[in-house]
Write a structure and sequence with these properties.
409 residues; alpha/beta; Rossmann fold; 16 strands; 42% helix; 17% strand
Length: 409
Amino acid sequence: MSRMTCGLIGHPLGHSFSPAIHAQLADYEYRLYDLGPEELAPFLEKRDFDGLNVTIPYKKAVLPFCAELTETAARIGSVNTLVKRPDGSLLGHNTDYDGFLWLLRSAGVEVAGKKALVLGSGGASLAVQTALRDLGAGGPVVVTRRGEENYVNLYERHADAQILVNATPAGMYPDTGVSLVELDRLPALEAVFDVIYNPAKTKLLLDAERRGLVCSNGLGMLVAQAKAAAERFTGARLDDGLVERIRASIERETKNVLLIGMPGCGKSTVGAALAEKLGRPLADLDALIVERAGRSIPAIFAAEGEEGFRRREHEVLCDTAKRSGLIIAAGGGAVTRPENLDPMRQNSLVVWLRRDLDKLPTEGRPLSQAHPLEELYRRREPLYRAAADLVVDNDGTVEEAAAKILGAM
């Protein structure tokens, strides 16, 4: 019996976690099919596949090609899973519905009787709306740019919303750092969900985190819908525990490790050791700044002052930290600029490397030479502590510090 061929259709696809997820779910080939609009119909009519997932912008466009829809897909009016039946016809289903139900359950959020806002009206939004209605949520109110409920009148009409779901691409890699709403103007919020999973924390989720709200990205939803799709493709029931195991595995593999700490604390050397052990690229932000500027850091300080250097540092940090799977060594003063904290935290485990002050070198470090280390540390210590997910002492060997970080991961 030949191996099944499944895959994902959409445009543009870019980097997708789906092949890695499906490889852990079942034994079939899983391909990415980046199809332009003119390629969609010929591809579907050829039927050279056994099952497909469907993503932006084709969740509604595939409807005419389905001989039948499942009850859930018919109610939603959108399809994200196609199964080729023995007679060659296509059955359309929507496993985004299954994925969003898993997301709510895993967060422990009860939505019955609570007012819900859903941002966006595309295919993912339709599944989210249906799931919320089925669970008894109030509304849900769908907010769009040009609809009756929009981002201008949102705060006047819906300041009492308790649940918020972003089902738009706003804030998704590579266009990170944006949010469609101001959470401080929605004082009744209890929980925020974002179907985006890259970056791990969109600006929306970082804002929710600061508010102390229950919040979650869409990675678990992605894995849960993939499990439901795999069950449709193969006709076999899969272990429910697979979802959390695969979600955690993907998160570990894709999350950056970003090292912060005083100048000379060992970020570059420990970072290089981690990169070698994990087989990941090392991004040394100071080295990248030097490369872009075409001059040394002391020369940048001399020509542009600390402000000029910090501006360059912010640009490099934003460009680098939104990527996935890196080891990043940040500059010692990166934490001194509030605008750097969100880029640091959006896709990274932030590790504060501590080292005794008498072991810190100062040569070639303008700020370390200009200020007593004790004073510099006193000012920065609370900033390092506030930014860090993990604190690791680096007073022994490089290998010992790297081992502590690996153990925590």
